[in-house]
């Protein structure tokens, strides 16, 4: 499907209709909005239009040990 596209494309799966809990979420307009917002934010982050989440800070390494 995406292999033949002449433009950039992304395929997302936000749930499976074969799972009753996920099906219920997919029917919920609030869940649909959250999923759409997350997908849009991911695309904008990929394009560099918004900064991504900060990397977790790790403890400094003691080179003398």
Percentage of β-strand residues: under 5%
Envelope shape: extended
For the record, give the distance between the C-alpha atoms at the N and C termini, rounded to a whole number: 53 Å
**Averaging pLDDT over every residue, what do you get?**
84
Rg over C-alpha atoms, rounded to the nearest angstrom: 19 Å
- Number of helical elements: 2
- How many extended strands? 0
Could you spell the SSE succession in H and E letters?
HH
Low-confidence stretches: none
Residues in helix, %: 40-55%
In short:
This protein is mostly helical. Helix content is 42%, strand content 0%.
Walk me through the structure.
With 65 residues, this protein is mainly alpha-helical. It has a domain at 18-51. It is built from two helices and no strands. The chain has helices at residues 20-27, 29-47.
Please tag this protein with its features.
mainly alpha, 65 residues, extended, single chain
List the helices and strands and how they pair.
Blueprint: H1 20-27, H2 29-47
């Amino acid at each position: 499907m995406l292999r033949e596209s002449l433009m950039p494309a992304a395929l997302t799966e936000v749930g499976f209709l074969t799972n009753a809990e996920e099906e219920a979420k997919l029917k919920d307009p609030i869940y649909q909005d959250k999923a759409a917002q997350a997908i849009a934010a991911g695309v904008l982050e990929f394009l560099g239009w918004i900064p991504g989440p900060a990397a977790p800070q790790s403890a400094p390494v003691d080179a003398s040990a």
